[in-house]
Amino acid sequence: MLLYFDFKQNNILKTLMRTISVGHWDAKKEKLKKKFKNLTDKDLSFNIGKEKEMIEILGYKLGISKQELLKIIITL
Fold first, then answer.
1. Where are the alpha helices (H) located in 1-76, listed in sequence order?
2. Contacts for 9-13: CB closer than 8 Å, 24+ residues apart
3. What angle is formed at CA 19 by the lines to CA 24 and CA 60, rounded to 5 degrees?
4. Per-residue pLDDT tens for 36-56?
5. Rounded to an integer, what distance in angstroms lies between the CA atom of residue 27 and that of residue 46?
6. What CA–CA distance (Å, rounded) separates 40 from 33?
7. What is the C-alpha separation between 47 and 6, in angstroms, rounded?
8. Which candidate in 37, 48, 68, 75 could, as Cys together with 64 as Cys, close a disulfide (CB 3.0–4.6 Å)?
């Protein structure tokens, strides 16, 4: 799966949406929970239209940037 990385603010959510639609969020969610033990199902709840909020919350909770988080999600 090759995805184009463009970390401009407008394209962060597009990248995430392509990743989720190409992959399966449930599988990625489980991998994220294994990698980061402090994440909960609520933290990883994916709702259409709320992608930005989810990424912001996850980035804050993990202490990493949105770009770093997207890179992790995409490579799972």
1. 9-22, 25-35, 51-62, 66-75
2. 12/52, 12/55, 12/66, 12/67, 12/70, 13/51, 13/52, 13/55
3. 100
4. 999 999 998 877 778 788 888
5. 12
6. 7
7. 22
8. 68
